[in-house]
Amino acid sequence: MSEPCMRLLNLYKEELADWLKGQGQPAYRAGQLFAWLHKGADFDGMTNLPKALIASLKEKATANPVHIAEKHVSSLDGTRKYLFGLQDGHCIEGVLMRYSYGNTLCISTQVGCRMGCTFCASTLEGCVRNLMADEMLGQMLCAQAESDVGTLRNVVLMGSGEPLDNYDQTVRFLRLATHPEGLNMSVRHISLSTCGLVDQMLRFAQEGLPVTLSVSLHAPNDHLRKQLMPIARRYRIQDILDACREYIRQTGRRVVFEYALIGGVNTGVGHARELAALLRGMQCHVNLIPLNDVPEHDLHGASRQEIQEFQQELTKLNISVSLRREMGDDIAGACGQLRRSRLKPSVLPSSEVMP
User: Fold this and answer.
1) Which stretches of the chain are DSSP H helices?
2) Catalytic residue ranges
């Protein structure tokens, strides 16, 4: 038997129809197969397909290329941390968070990340490869398949990787995840996080996919941002803000600015005033993120007092702001922590870090 080669979950319905036509199958089979794939069914579970077709699919194709290798459940808040296994032996992470308004799954878009941000564990070994759209969808299907999880209300592309550094597959994922005959996820319930790849942000504004754009800012000026984020050497904050304004103009959606609170680095009242001056008049919201300690870079989370004073200053200056609730602290909930704990140095021979 040959190795499975056609990645069916990665195909649009029309592409699936073309492939099935080449297998001698009628066009209506595409709708049946597409629906089964997006329910997370394996081939044996596709009960309205003929046995001969199922046998052929097993030989020539693959359905969901992702499986749950490990699952950790927080005793504090019920957060679930997944280590997902991929067909090539690599692993990625996902986090399921339970909120009063519904379950939210944080998924990865790359194996690792090459952006090199100093406060993030995902980027410490660089980027091994991009994920395919079916590997992003597969994370959703695996999490949703757990009997007590239920329907996912929200998905955030905030796990390992920079989504816009994997542009084509990320856009394919978004179109598949929102397909009315598939998962039918509302585009307004999807958030995409970027460190500020301006060219791709401008391109993405034209895609007709008005997701919530979350921009990792983390500093109120270019000098400080360059110390924290290598991408700041390529794009100025002003360039990023101009791209955000264009995204708002094209989509009508407000932009969320993520700001990791690093003790003694970017949390002074003066920093808050600088940030407010940058964002005044923009249709936006600031999401403050308590930092998990990063021993490799000797960075530590801000104190409770620093956080409180920073948030109060932004509020006083009429900036919409909230503090992200810390979840999954007892299960390595921060991005990249669980995967790193399972890696050996020899696992990542082809990793790439942004210069």
Assistant:
1) 13-22, 28-38, 51-60, 133-145, 167-177, 198-204, 222-228, 237-251, 269-279, 304-316, 337-342
2) 93, 335
Name 55's Cβ contacts closer than 8 Å, sequence gap at least 6.
none
Mean per-residue pLDDT, 56-85? 94
Would residue 350 count as lying in a domain? no
**DSSP 3-state of 85:** strand
Give pLDDT tens digits for 12-42.
999 999 999 999 999 999 999 999 999 999 9
Domain count, the chain: 2
Task: Round the average pLDDT of the chain to a whole number and report it.
Answer: 91
∠ CA(342), CA(330), CA(334), 5° rounding?
60
CB-CB contact of 230 with 116 (8 Å):
yes
Question: d(Cα 3, Cα 152) in Å, to the nearest integer?
Answer: 32
User: Are 29 and 106 within one domain?
Assistant: no
Q: Quote the Cα angle for 94-108-339, to 5°.
A: 60
What tokens were used for 241? 């803000």
The owner of tokens 């992200």 is 324
